[in-house]
Specification:
The chain has helices at 5-26, 72-77, 82-91, and strands at 38-46, 52-61, 68-71, 95-96. The protein is an alpha+beta fold. The protein has a domain at 36-95. Strands 3-2-1-4 form a four-stranded mixed sheet. The mean pLDDT is 90.
């Protein structure tokens, strides 16, 4: 089995860019940043070809009311893909918020 250290370096760079995006969006510095305190809600849409893609990602700190929005373009500008951001949040045990309908 071949081991390529460049894979780890690229993974670390992408993870760092995702963390920086989340820190800036949530107003946290590196010392106060804890991904387990993040609640997130991906918002999907369909492209012209009918394929699902991430329109934007709503994020907030647990217990805070307003969500902050991170656009698809902002994610791609970091060098990460939308799937990598979702995988990062899942792997770091952030809390995924699923909308529910109030049927009263």
């Amino acid at each position: 089995m071949d081991f390529d250290i460049t894979d780890d370096i690229f993974r670390d760079i992408i993870q760092g860019s995702i963390e920086k995006l989340l820190q800036d969006t949530l107003g946290k510095d590196e010392d106060d940043y804890d991904p387990e305190e993040i609640e997130y809600q991906p918002v999907w849409t369909l492209c012209e070809e009918g394929e699902k893609f991430l329109k934007y990602l709503s994020v907030r700190l647990a217990g805070c009311i307003p969500f902050q929005t991170i656009s698809n373009r902002e994610i791609l500008d970091t060098g990460a893909t939308c799937a990598e951001v979702i995988n990062y949040l899942t792997h770091k045990k952030s809390i995924k918020i699923t909308p529910t309908l109030n049927r009263e």
